[in-house]
Please model this.
Amino acid sequence: MVIPPIDWVRTEHGKADSGGYLLSEFTNVSYQGFLDKKSFQLHEHNLHLKTVTSLNNLQKCKFAINTRMVAFVVKFGKELTESEKLLITDKWLEPNKDLVLNVNKKWAKIFNSATEVRRSIYKELAANKQQTMRNQEVLRIAKLYSDKTIYWRAVFDFRGRVYRIGNLNIQMDEFVRSLIFK
Model:
């Protein structure tokens, strides 16, 4: 977000169920509902907090995009992908037969069964394709916000853990974190 999120506000019952977004009608309820379905447990969606000050202070932290790192990745994207240090170019989106043969050789040394080799090849190709698409999306977002100050919403789950929401945030992998600085 380019505008600080709305503060979390405690109700008279000591709970907080609105805040963290730009508009007060959007809350962490949908995020909490996802966690409830995932854990198969019923949890009240309200935040039981004695204070929401820490969460509000986290949301007020300003961040910026590391434009030098973005320029580096754009300039050396092909070399990074070829060395498999960072999957950023379209190489893995439509793999050619040479790439599939190289992956096949790698897995054929490990597995004896053709079925296991084939399954491993599909898994690696799918994982690399997914990671390439995510990295490309993160890079596009970083380019878009490169000249702006940005903020991230923060939410607590029912266990009290803090999460940042978004594809480009500080709780992601090293590539994403390298594009951000405070």
